[in-house]
Structures are given as C-alpha cells and as structure tokens.
C-alpha cells in the first residue's frame, strides 16, 4: 500500500465515528492480519482468503467493519458535491435507482436523495455493527444464526455507494487525486465479496464492465 493510500485511509475525514477494534481482542489480531497481508503487497485475491484455522464469521465481521470505515471515508471525500440538488435520487446511472427501506421509519422502499440515502445507510450500518448481539466483540460469544444474512445486506448496500460514486462523482474523485485509492479499495471489496459469495450477481451488474477491466 502506497504512503499516499495510507494517508487517505488514515485521515480522519470520516463521515462519522469509527468502530475500532480493541487491542488485545481476537478481532484486533485478525484485523492486523488482514492489514499485514495488504501491506505486504499480496495479490488482493490472495489477501482476502480465509487464513488457516480462522473462523469465517470472524473474518467477515472484521472486513465488514473495515469496509464500512473505508467506504465512509471515500464518500466523505466527495460528499460536498453530492447534494439534494445534484443527486435528487440515489442512483447508478439511468438504469438503476436505489430506494431506502429499514425496519423502523421506512417500512416500504422509499425514493430519497443520494445524500439522504448515504446518511440513512451509514447510521443503519453503525447500529448493526455496534450491536453486540449481531457483532459480538467478546471472544467465545457466538455469532447469531442470522449474522451472514446481516453481513450480506450491509455489503450489498455498501456496494451501492461505489456504484453512485463511480457513476456520478468520478470526476470529483479524479480531481482530488484519489482515483488509485478508490480503485484499490473497490478491488479489495470486490475480491472479498466474490471470494465468499456475499453479494448477489444482480447487485454487481451496474459496475460489471468496469469490474471486468479492473479485477480480472
């Protein structure tokens, strides 16, 4: 990972507070393991593979939190050019529109502006990853049976952030010199979700052409 890339990912221009892994916990060790394989310049396809003897739920949990933090940061860098006026709907080009739905206020899929969608999404993910019953931090506390289902939903929705950023705000990303950083994060994310089949192929459709150029 280049120094510039480290600076972008370590900058504190995050959309909201980060969920940190506490040093000394098993997750923290796994997080370090994941970071080490990236820093060693390992091929991303290899870097995402489940380390020998590790639990898949743990590995997925660590990556979900990491991707949440990094994608948050990416959106944070372009958020000044993503407004209710420029992006009145959360879309990925003319063919794809994403509506928001949750278990609380938005019981039916509802059309909202892109910044509103991002805000609802990041709040919703934060609630999930800070919920000890879904993402237990104590070693030995089992993951719930629904964990993978929740992780898949989080990752599918985070993918939509990439779709919106790439299709509607890539000029801003390039302007800020962040193109290489965003591409690396995307490749890492894509390799991870395909390694463990965490996102439906239908969801990946909007960036299919770009992905085949970038990740194969």
TrEMBL record:
Cite the entry's keywords alphabetically: Metal-binding, Zinc
Q: Gene3D superfamilies under this entry? A: MOB kinase activator
Q: Does the keyword Metal-binding apply?
A: yes
Q: Which residues of the sequence carry a binding annotation for Zn(2+)?
A: 82, 87, 164, 169
InterPro entries (alphabetical):
MOB_kinase_act_fam (IPR005301), MOB_kinase_act_sf (IPR036703)
Q: Which domain of life is it from?
A: Eukaryota
Point out the signal peptide segment: none
Name recorded for this polypeptide: MOB kinase activator 3A
Q: What is the native source organism of this protein? A: Cyprinus carpio (Common carp)
């Amino acid at each position: 990972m280049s120094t510039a890339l480290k600076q972008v990912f370590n900058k504190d221009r995050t959309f909201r507070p980060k969920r940190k892994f506490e040093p000394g916990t098993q997750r923290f060790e796994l997080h370090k393991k994941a970071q080490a394989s990236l820093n060693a310049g390992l091929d991303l396809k290899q870097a995402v593979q489940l380390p020998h003897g590790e639990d898949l739920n743990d590995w997925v949990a660590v990556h979900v939190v990491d991707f949440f933090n990094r994608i948050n940061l990416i959106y944070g860098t372009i958020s000044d050019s993503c407004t209710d006026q420029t992006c009145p709907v959360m879309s990925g080009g003319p063919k794809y529109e994403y509506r928001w739905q949750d278990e609380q206020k938005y019981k039916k899929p509802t059309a909202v502006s892109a910044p509103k969608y991002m805000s609802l999404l990041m709040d919703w993910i934060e609630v999930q990853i800070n919920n000890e019953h879904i993402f237990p931090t104590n070693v030995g506390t089992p993951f719930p049976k629904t964990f993978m289902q929740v992780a898949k939903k989080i990752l599918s929705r985070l993918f939509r952030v990439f779709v919106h950023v790439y299709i509607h705000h890539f000029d801003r990303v390039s302007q800020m010199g962040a193109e290489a950083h965003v591409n690396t994060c995307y490749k890492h994310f894509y390799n991870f979700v395909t390694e463990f089949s965490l996102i439906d192929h239908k969801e990946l459709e909007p960036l299919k052409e770009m992905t085949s150029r970038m990740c194969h």
